[in-house]
Design brief:
Blueprint: H1 5-14, H2 16-36, H3 40-65, H4 74-87, H5 89-131
Helix pairs in contact: 2-3, 2-4, 2-5, 4-5
């Protein structure tokens, strides 16, 4: 079955939307990388998962708009949508969340240390209640 010129033009123009969706998805992956400082192995796995998501989205798009045919002319349109997001809104969001992440990382050590101490105290109290121990009996420190 051959697609008419109007159908092909519509499919080409609508292919920008999956590109923007992939740009947003890549922005989330990038944010996670900056936030958690992934190792090389985790970065590789996240890249592979992103490529799989891009492949699935491209396939679903070709099923929906092109009757399952893979046409090479819509791949540049998807790339255009991806770059459109990355060079406009993606760049703006990156400039906004990068300083916030830096501040959180600096203050995160203090917050995490306090959180650990609180969790230790709560778990120690729970241990004393669970095993019905008194101070100095099973634990060297007070419950």
């Amino acid at each position: 079955m051959e697609l008419s010129f109007a159908e092909q033009s519509t499919a080409f123009l609508c292919a920008v939307v999956p590109g923007v969706i992939l740009g947003v998805l890549y922005g989330v992956v990038r944010l996670l990388r900056v936030l958690f400082d992934f190792s090389n192995a985790v970065t590789f796995i996240s890249d592979v998962l992103f490529m799989l998501a891009a492949s699935v989205l491209t396939f679903l798009y070709s099923l929906a708009f092109l009757s399952g045919y893979v046409r090479l002319y819509f791949l540049p349109a998807i790339l255009f949508g991806f770059l459109l997001y990355r060079l406009t809104l993606g760049k703006l969001l990156c400039r906004m969340y990068t300083p916030v992440i830096r501040v959180l990382k600096k203050s995160g050590g203090v917050i995490l240390k306090n959180f650990r101490e609180i969790v230790k105290k709560v778990l120690k109290k729970g241990y004393c209640l669970l095993y019905n121990t008194k101070a100095g009996k099973k634990l060297k420190k007070k419950c």
